[in-house]
Specification:
Structural class: alpha/beta
Oligomer: single chain
Mean pLDDT: 94
Helix content: 25-40%
Shape: globular
Number of helices: 11
Strand order of the largest sheet: 4-3-2-5-6-10-7
Number of domains: 1
Number of strands: 10
Order of helices and strands: HHEHEHEHEEHEHHHEEHHEE
Low-confidence stretches: none
Radius of gyration: 18 Å
CATH class: Alpha Beta
Length: 264
């Protein structure tokens, strides 16, 4: 069954499909501190560090946290999608970084020398990688000794109350990213490669008040984006029933975490 973790070339040619999922999380997550700022404040970065963001997407993270990270970072924005790299560089090049460079790249074959970076960031992207073991080894390789890898991903129970609605498409009632590369997989692979790993979970929940935003987010990737009219009608009905049960609101628990490993 196709899902959010497959068909990446079509899904991520640009940020349009990603925007629907981004809006759902941005507008309806309840937390003392937002996800991007929460991650940024835990990154052990120093002024002037060379940082690789692999799977950078449209650069939303860096544009959002410029006040939460040290100054003069030399930022390399890399993604398998040339469109995403272009968008990210355009978004970040006017921000007060030491430098901003873009590179189309696959995590399993990074086009950088050994020991090139003080930090590598891989946010919610390893569940798209067919061979995450090789990807982990490549990120380890391009880190300097003492450098840090930061990986974010979801737990399999993330937003379960929402993903349960996608069974009308034949999908499993779990977060597809968390199922493909969730907490357990991240910890196992990082510990095996680095010999150390720490984990923190963002304390947050969702309170969604607009049914259409659920519909748009979950039909922005397979199989929802190719569903039949009958399936889409059933999906709208399932969403409506969920909101009715909640008195006009859909509540969901979040499982979203940050893993850090340091190269000896």
């Amino acid at each position: 069954m196709s899902s959010i973790v497959s068909g990446t070339a079509a899904q991520y040619a640009d940020s349009r499909r990603l925007a629907a999922r981004g809006r759902l999380n941005r507008e309806y997550t309840i937390a003392e501190i937002g996800w991007f700022s929460w991650v940024a404040r835990q990154l052990p970065l120093d002024p002037g560090d060379r940082v690789l963001d692999i799977g950078c997407g449209p650069g939303w993270f860096w544009a959002s946290v410029i006040g939460d990270v040290p100054g003069n970072l030399d930022l390399t924005l890399a993604d398998q999608s040339a469109g995403m790299v272009e968008e990210a560089v355009n978004r970040c090049r006017t921000l007060p970084f030491g430098s901003v460079a873009g590179r189309q790249a696959e995590v399993t074959a990074l086009p950088f020398d050994d020991g090139s970076f003080d930090a590598v960031i891989a946010m919610h992207m390893l569940y798209h990688v067919p061979d995450p073991v090789t990807g982990m080894a490549e990120m380890f390789r391009v880190l300097k000794p003492g450098g840090v890898l930061a990986v974010t991903t979801n737990g399999i129970g993330n937003m379960r109350e929402i993903y349960e609605l996608t069974t009308v498409f034949g999908s499993s009632p779990v977060d597809p990213g968390g199922a493909a590369f969730g907490y357990q997989k991240a910890e196992e692979l990082m510990a095996a490669q680095f010999g150390n790993v720490t984990f923190s979970e963002h304390p947050a929940r969702m309170r969604i008040t607009e049914p259409e935003d659920v519909f748009l987010a979950l039909t922005s990737y397979p199989p929802g984006d190719g569903a039949s009219e009958t399936q889409l009608a059933a999906f709208r009905e399932a969403i409506a029933e969920a909101f009715e049960r909640g008195g006009g609101v859909l509540e969901a628990r979040k499982e979203t975490g940050l893993f850090l490993s340091r190269k000896a």
